[in-house]
Amino acid sequence: MHTTSTYTSRAEVMKALAHPSRLMMLDALADGEKCVCELQALVGSSMPTVSNHLAQMRNAGIIAARREGNWIYYRLLVPCVLKLFQCIDAVLVSEAERMAQALGETE
Q: What digits encode the pLDDT tens for the residues 23-44?
């Protein structure tokens, strides 16, 4: 049995993932380190918004940053977080199949 603190920590990590732009950035980081400008171009948001998203993921321990001159580069700290995408996709497929079956039964 886990403690309430464990579940609270898990929820914080989940919150750090709970935005489409953050998920897009994580997917991009699966291919390797990216500068913040590349991530900004990917999601099409302002620099302050992208920086906020990156800070949330960094504070949750999902990504790390390093500075090289004027540039900041980000990388995944725990690439296994990408396995969560497979699980979520399986849920989405299952739900789509359930909905299609329900619609088929009502027609």
A: 999 999 999 999 999 999 999 9
